[in-house]
Write a sequence for this structure.
């Protein structure tokens, strides 16, 4: 019995003398993260935000006019990527973060564009500075800020917009044209707003550049057979298969493409192909697929000195590589907010907005600056702006192939296309 | 040629998805709205065995997954549906709630993302009359035809199968001959769930195991059964071919994104012209009475 008492006394002594993480006694700054946590774009963003918060808190927190304040994250499931869930659910989630969880800032979502657009009024009403980092690709988001600055000045986006992604795709495909002489494209998109718009934009953009767009097929969400479309593409001599889908069944398309040995290289925005597990899931049949991950750092690459540090820290914390779109931007948003608060010396929204507007920070995927519409300034050079990540699946790895300044390999063609 | 080949594949896929739902309804008059959830559960269980136990043989994983799904189906009847049997609205609400609980439970338990897949039984593809078909889809066709034949043999030449048919034809008369209604309902739920599971292990290697697929499977199973006539096996197969070919023709000549519209439109048209479905007798009998 005596020995047991000694043991517990020693244990108690050890526990109270172990130095804990450096935490400030100051009131925490609450970051509200409205995310669709059951989906890749939600859970990866959550991990990115938490990783950044842990790093910042471990170093003492945020310096607000001399006082070190830690960050605290409150995550709420918006469910906005689930089929049939109305936009109002996401709005309720955002309002709950603001009113019940007393969020000082919002980072992350809502993830679905429609919900994010609807939330802009809510953010404006409650004067909450928000940085959208994942899911919302619509150019309308920053256009609204530009059109009505006084109302929507609280809204920032540090991830890519679909308009810019299209330009990246067209530049990339023009490079492919020069290298391989390709000029025939076949478009396959999902029957959702952003994908249809993406397909139409690509059709026009490629036609303007002298490409022949053979056809544009729109598939319903949940479609599991693409044989007819692929056969049509094959028969009509397509060389590029442009895909824009965020449904899991797009993996079927890639499997069929590989089985049918279609002589057209698949390029696009394919959510199912973003995760490292895609390779195993398709049994390697997704090899040669080229995917746009929206922002650098969502897959390993040497874009800036911070990129691989982030990737390694993420792997150490979560046990796997960053999985897809929304990870690096969510991580960076916390650092951008920290920088803005420290320069503003306050968490007052007006002061933080001014600080974010004048921010110039070298981040995970390049130089981070916002334009007048509060959209991150994109560039093909990380020294000039935020860089995208277009990668190709090569021998089980995601190899960055565009933009050329940060590419780690060249886009390759499958053996049956040579 | 592609339209014929892929029309057949699509039709057999639809009938495989719907057979379990039809079987349960035809025998015990229970609309099993947990059908889609059981489909996904089987795929997920098979995936768990394959991925959590290194080197676990694929056929055993499939067998265990289907067996577990059969047991789940039987338990659903034994502990829940038995109490509300005969109350149609309650049956629908209860089975739909069970389905929701299973699917959302799976999501909560970790079935999230797009990397849950089962391997195909055979890789590669063949060219048949100028149409490229992957091996797995050919297997789907073969397995589908075999399933129809085996089910026919089971219900016509096996004692249990004959008992099931007896209950389906006239429950009171069958009970007078010593066939227990609850026992046959348990068996029908078990076999129906097993058929959902069987469809899953054959069809899921073509895509991913995702929660949303459970809802889609339920929609298509209901569409096929309503058009064919609830509880009619022949109607199920015929309706599968009607919807299957209609979808392929829509994709070929109209646009692929109208495929779901075609299925739902077919339900509306059927309900307008023949409310009991193509081979359905229930409504007609009620009207005559």
């Amino acid at each position: 019995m005596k020995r047991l008492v000694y043991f517990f006394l020693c244990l108690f002594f050890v526990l109270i003398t172990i130095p804990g993480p450096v935490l400030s006694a100051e009131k925490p700054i609450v970051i509200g993260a409205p995310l669709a946590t059951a989906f890749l774009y939600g859970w990866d963003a959550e991990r990115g935000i938490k990783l950044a918060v842990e790093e910042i808190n471990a170093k003492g927190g945020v310096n607000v006019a001399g006082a070190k304040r830690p960050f605290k994250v409150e995550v709420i499931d918006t469910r906005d990527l689930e089929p049939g869930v109305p936009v109002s659910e996401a709005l309720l989630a955002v309002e709950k973060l603001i009113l019940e969880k007393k969020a000082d800032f919002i980072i992350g979502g809502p993830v679905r564009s429609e919900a994010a657009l609807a939330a802009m009024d809510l953010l404006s009403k409650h004067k909450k500075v928000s940085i959208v980092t994942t899911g919302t690709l619509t150019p309308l988001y920053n256009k609204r800020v530009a059109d009505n600055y006084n109302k929507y000045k609280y809204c920032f986006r540090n991830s890519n917009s679909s308009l810019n992604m299209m330009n990246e795709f067209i530049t990339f495909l023009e490079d492919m044209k020069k290298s391989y002489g390709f000029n025939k494209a076949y478009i396959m998109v999902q029957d959702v707003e952003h994908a249809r718009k993406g397909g139409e934009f690509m059709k026009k953009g490629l036609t303007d550049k002298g490409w022949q767009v053979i056809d544009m097929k729109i598939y319903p969400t949940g479609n599991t057979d693409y044989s007819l479309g692929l056969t049509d593409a094959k028969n009509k001599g397509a060389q590029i298969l442009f895909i824009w889908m965020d449904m899991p069944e797009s993996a079927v398309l890639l499997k069929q493409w590989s089985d049918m040995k279609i002589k057209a290289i698949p390029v696009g925005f394919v959510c199912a192909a973003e995760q490292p597990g895609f390779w195993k899931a398709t049994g390697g049949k997704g090899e040669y697929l080229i995917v746009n991950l929206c922002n650098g750092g969502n897959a390993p690459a040497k874009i800036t000195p911070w990129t691989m540090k982030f990737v390694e820290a993420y792997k150490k914390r979560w046990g796997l590589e960053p999985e897809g779109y929304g990870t690096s931007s969510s991580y960076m948003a916390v650092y951008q907010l920290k920088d803005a608060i420290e320069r503003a010396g306050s968490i007052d929204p007006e002061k933080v907005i001014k600080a974010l507007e004048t921010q110039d920070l070298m981040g995970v995927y390049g130089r981070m600056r916002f334009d007048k519409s509060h959209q991150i300034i994109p560039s093909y050079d990380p020294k000039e702006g935020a860089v995208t990540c277009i990668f190709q699946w090569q021998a089980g790895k995601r190899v960055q192939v565009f933009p050329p300044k940060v590419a780690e390999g060249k886009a390759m063609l499958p053996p049956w296309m040579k | 040629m592609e339209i014929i080949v892929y029309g057949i594949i699509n039709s057999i896929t639809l009938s495989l998805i719907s057979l379990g739902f039809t079987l349960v309804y035809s025998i015990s008059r229970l609309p099993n709205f947990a059908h889609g959830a059981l489909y996904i559960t089987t795929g997920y269980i098979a995936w768990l065995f394959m991925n959590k136990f290194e080197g676990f043989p694929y056929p055993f994983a499939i067998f265990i997954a289907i067996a577990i799904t059969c047991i789940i189906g039987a338990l659903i009847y034994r502990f829940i549906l038995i109490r509300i049997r005969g109350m149609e609205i309650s049956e629908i609400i209860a089975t739909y709630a069970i389905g929701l609980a299973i699917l959302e439970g799976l999501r909560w338990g970790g079935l999230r993302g797009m990397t849950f897949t089962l391997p195909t039984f055979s890789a590669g593809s063949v060219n048949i009359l100028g149409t490229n078909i992957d091996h797995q889809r050919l297997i789907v066709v073969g397995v589908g035809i075999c399933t129809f034949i085996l089910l026919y043999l089971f219900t016509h030449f096996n004692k249990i199968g004959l008992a099931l048919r007896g209950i389906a034809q006239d429950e009171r008369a069958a009970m007078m001959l010593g066939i227990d209604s609850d026992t046959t309902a348990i068996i029908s739920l078990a076999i129906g769930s097993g058929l959902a599971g069987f469809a899953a292990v054959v069809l899921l290697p073509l895509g991913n195991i995702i929660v949303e697929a459970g809802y889609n499977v339920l929609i298509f199973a209901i569409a096929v059964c309503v058009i064919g006539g609830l509880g009619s096996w022949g109607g199920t197969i015929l309706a599968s071919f009607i919807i299957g070919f209609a979808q392929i023709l829509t994709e070929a000549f109209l646009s692929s994104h109208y495929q779901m519209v075609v299925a739902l439109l077919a339900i509306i048209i059927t309900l307008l012209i023949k409310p009991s479905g193509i081979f359905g007798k229930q409504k007609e009998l009620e009207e005559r009475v």
